[in-house]
Amino acid sequence: MNWTDWWVWMAAGVALAILEVILPGAIFLGFAVGAFMVGLLFLLGIPLGGVYTTFLVFAVISALAWFVLRRYLGVRKGQIKTFDKDIND
Questions:
Q1: What is the rounded distance in angstroms from the CA atom of residue 34 to the CA atom of residue 58?
Q2: How many domains does the chain have?
Q3: In a domain, 16, yes or no
Q4: What residues have CB less than 8 Å from 46, skipping those under 6 apart?
Q5: Residue-range definition of the domain harbouring residue 10
Q6: Considering 1, 56, 66, 79, which has the largest number of Cβ atoms within 10 A of its Cβ?
Q7: Are 48 and 4 within 8 A, CB to CB?
Q8: What is the pTM of this model?
């Protein structure tokens, strides 16, 4: 397996997106976005350097994606999640 192949990162993005569906909480979604973006960079032919640089780019993109998604999908400051209806009603 070569870490500079675009399909490896796309497959990792799909696996992380599926993991997000199974274990919700918007934790793995940022990692999935990061993997998709690194795969897209490789698909477009943009060289990222060695393995360490590739993982650094993945980490930075994933962190940025996580913070952006947390801002739009997370609980707002002062907001409390409440449930008005019960599934058994």
A1: 5
A2: 1
A3: yes
A4: none
A5: 6-71
A6: 66
A7: yes
A8: 0.77
